[in-house]
Amino acid sequence: MSAGPNHPDRAFPLERTRNIGIAAHIDAGKTTLTERILFYTGMIHRIGEVHDGAATTDWMEQERDRGITITSAAVTCEWKQLEEGGVHKTYTGDTQRINIIDTPGHVDFTAEVERSLRVLDGAVVVFCGVAGVQPQSETVWRQATKYQVPRIVFVNKMDRVGADFDAVVEDVREKLGANAHPILVPIGAEEDLKGQIDVISGKAILYSDDDLLGSTYDVAELSEDQKLIADAARDSLIEALVDADEEIGLKFLDEEEITNADIKEALRRATVSNKIVPVVGGSAFKNKGVQYLLDAVVDYLPSPLEVVPAQGTQIDDESALVEAPADDNGKFCALAFKLWSDKYVGKLVFIRVYSGTVSKGDQVFNSRTGRKERIGRLIQIQSNDHKDIETCYAGDIAAIVGPKNVRTGDTLHADKFDIMLEPPAFPDPVISMAVEPKTTADSERLADALSRLAEEDPTFVVSTDEETGQTIIAGMGELHLEIIQSRLEAEYSVKTNAGKPQIAYRETITSGASGEYKLVKQTGGKGQYGHVILKAAPSARGKGFTFNNRIVGGEIPKEFFKAVETGIRESLNNGVIMGYPVVDVHVDLIGGSSHDVDSNEQAFKIAAILAMRDAFQDGGSILLEPV
Ligand code: GDP
User: Cα–Cα distance between 189 and 196 in angstroms, integer?
Assistant: First the structure.
């Protein structure tokens, strides 16, 4: 009987689910906006201002201290759309589920932005009404374009002195090349910000200042001046839609009447297909315009059914593509996109379920390890509350409590579903520094804490300097490492001293080169003999290390192949110029020789390391700046 993608037990059909991110340049007001959304959707009952450090999504102490958002917490809320043209406080229609995946705003954490963009279906991009498009918003915008995330722009801070809505819309068009069209134009600006003109319905939404936190407002007729603005915006919106959308284009050509419903439907199609970006103006802080922004999220951003299904490959065959379409009746497949250690609940893994369902008590598989994971407990985060749930359905977001061997980017899947979603690509660290515990008693705790943090955050790398024995931490920027240090202290009570941050250079070679080394030690008794001939060549940046064993004639016996490869890999840890890791090199093993008695694994490993050193010296090694 089961028709359609929805299981009868789910509270919110897929059509009424939105997974959105709120992306913004630091300080544009993302935290304030998120908090207002949680307030209007009834998830929190008071508004703690960001500058008091009480914002709800900012879980980490450091974020509070710095007033920025670093983690991608996922918060679930429910929204009933406003009655069209109605009076305040009346809601209509069915309840919608909106999951907000908090995308970090700081450039040091672009990897986190990329990861969260992969799991959301649409985004609200916040700009400051005064500052407009700032350089870092361009980065986030380009990433969203790369992942084809449909967007709505929210021009925030329209209450600030110097706020200019039209200028920001122009900025978004010019700097970001977006086909941006206002749908909710602010009424007034700065101190006189009163509300919004709803371009499509042709009504004014007026917030009365004495109202408690903007939860009530009136919908009124437009004044003459407002009508001029509304008509111009509506005409230009229709013109853009006629260009972007065939259906409304045909109506226009046939000179049929274009209704508000036609405009809304066409705008939905055009937004979902990334042809148009609707723009909403308002002020989160002054409680103006957030409710209608939420309506726009429901009206124009896609449900999980309307986006391209998640695509992965078979676990052992990268060329065999497998899809995970949003359907409760499909086989279970989810992406673990965020690890989190919660003070009260313990280790959490946030998952986005793409297809099928998962319930408490289920066994699922991890495609990276091939091992079983039992789902002991499932929760949804509602602001800073946890709500236990029995089942998480397709297209939804939840957190698993306490899984042991799950990392960020892992695919969890049903037993009979051979799928591995492409793990997100993470950039190499750009900066590193040595750390040591302030007291030797903390050494063990430090090692343990660092390995946990590295597990949570794939852009954070821990290693040991072989020569000095120092612990080296590496990450995406100085701020990133500073935050790691303060988390060590706050969450793991380990105080550390740190060395000077160093740029994490890499080395590579500029031309092909051969390398050879013959290790011969015959000093009575059993000697050492290993002989390796190889060729090294530069590969494209980002390609990493690749290796081909071309020995066919038995010059090196099979049992030493592994040792040779280990030696080659080890040689990449330290380049010949400054000892930085060597990247983007292809190595062919082409020859060598062996001795019946004196050859052993150790001798071949050393010969391989020294043959590589020989090739690096020959191949014109250079330093690479971090990208
Ligand atoms: P985030 O860094 O993007 O999360 O930005 P926040 O939400 O922390 O806001 C940064 C600062 O701007 C805070 O001091 C907010 O109170 C303030 N702010 C946020 N929204 C508005 C707004 O609409 N108008 C004004 N005047 N200030 C705002």
Answer: 10
User: What three-state secondary structure class fits 438?
Assistant: coil
| Separation between Cα atoms, residue 154 and residue 125, nearest integer Å | 6
Q: How far apart are CA 526 and CA 87, in angstroms?
A: 94
96-109 residue pLDDT tens: 899 998 776 555 55
Q: Report d(CA 360, CA 401) in Å as an integer.
A: 10
Which atom, in ligand 1's list, is nearest to the CA of 288? 23
Give, to the nearest 10 degrees, the angle between helix 478-492 and helix 443-456. 120
The sign one gets for the Cα dihedral 48, 51, 52, 58 is: positive
What tokens does 461 get? 């790398």
Spatial separation of the C-alpha atoms in residues 556 and 504, rounded to whole Å = 36
Cut 0.90: pTM above it? no
In tens, the pLDDT along 389-424 reads 999 999 999 999 988 888 878 899 999 999 998 655
C-alpha distances (whole Å) from 41 to each of 44, 110, 212, 380, 496 are 8, 29, 15, 16, 42
Answer for the pair 184, 281: CB distance below 8 angstroms, yes or no.
yes
Quote the tokens at residue 73: 């917490």
Give me 341's structure tokens: 């250690």
Is 50 near ligand 1, meaning CB less than 6 Å away?
yes
What is the distance between the alpha carbons of residues 153 and 300, in angstroms, rounded to a whole number? 12
Q: How many CB atoms lie within 10 A of CB 433?
A: 21
H-run or E-run covering 267:
helix 260-272
Nearest Cα to Cα of residue 596 among 523, 532, 549, 526? 526
Query: pLDDT per residue over 272-329, tens digit each?
Result: 999 999 999 999 999 999 999 999 999 999 999 999 999 999 987 777 899 999 999 9
Q: What is the distance in A from the centroid of ligand 1 to the CA of 289? A: 15
Among candidates 386, 355, 297, 346, which has minimal Cα distance to 22? 297
User: Closest ligand 1 atom to the C-alpha of 28?
Assistant: 3
Confidence of residue 43 (pLDDT cuts 50, 70, 90): low
- Measured in Å, residue 286 CA sits from the centre of ligand 1 at 10
CB of 529 closer than 8 Å to CB of 601 = no
* Ligand 1 near 26 CB (within 6 A): yes
533 lines ligand 1 (CB under 6 A): no
Cα 262 from chain centre:
34
Name the residue with higher pLDDT: 11 or 434. Answer: 434
Q: CB atoms < 10 A from the CB of 221, how many?
A: 9
Residue of 143 and 388 predicted with greater confidence: 388
Query: Among the residues of 86-207, which ranges form H helices?
Result: 110-119, 135-146, 165-176
- Determine the atom of ligand 1 nearest the C-alpha atom of 282: 23
Are 69 and 60 in contact by the 8 Å Cβ rule? The answer is no
Q: How many CB atoms lie within 10 A of CB 317?
A: 11
Q: What integer pLDDT is reported at residue 404 of this predicted model? A: 80
Closest alpha carbon to 357 in 411, 396, 393, 310 = 393
Which atom belonging to ligand 1 lies closest to the Cα atom of 126?
3
φ, ψ at 209 (rounded to 5°): -60, -30
